[in-house]
Amino acid sequence: MISLLPVGGIGEVSPGDELADMVLRAVELEDYDVLVVTQKVVSKAEGRLVPLDADDPQARRRVILGESVRVLREREGMLITETRHGFVCANAGVDLSNVAAGSAALLPVDPDRSARHIRDAILARTGLHTGVIVSDTFGRTWRNGLTDVAIGCAGIAAVIDLRGTTDAGGRELAVTQVCIADELAGAAELVKGKASGVPVVVVRGVDRSWFRESSVRAEVVRHPSGDLFR
Amino acid sequence: MISLLPVGGIGEVSPGDELADMVLRAVELEDYDVLVVTQKVVSKAEGRLVPLDADDPQARRRVILGESVRVLREREGMLITETRHGFVCANAGVDLSNVAAGSAALLPVDPDRSARHIRDAILARTGLHTGVIVSDTFGRTWRNGLTDVAIGCAGIAAVIDLRGTTDAGGRELAVTQVCIADELAGAAELVKGKASGVPVVVVRGVDRSWFRESSVRAEVVRHPSGDLFR
Question: CA B10, CA B202: separation in Å to the nearest integer?
Answer without folding.
Answer: 13
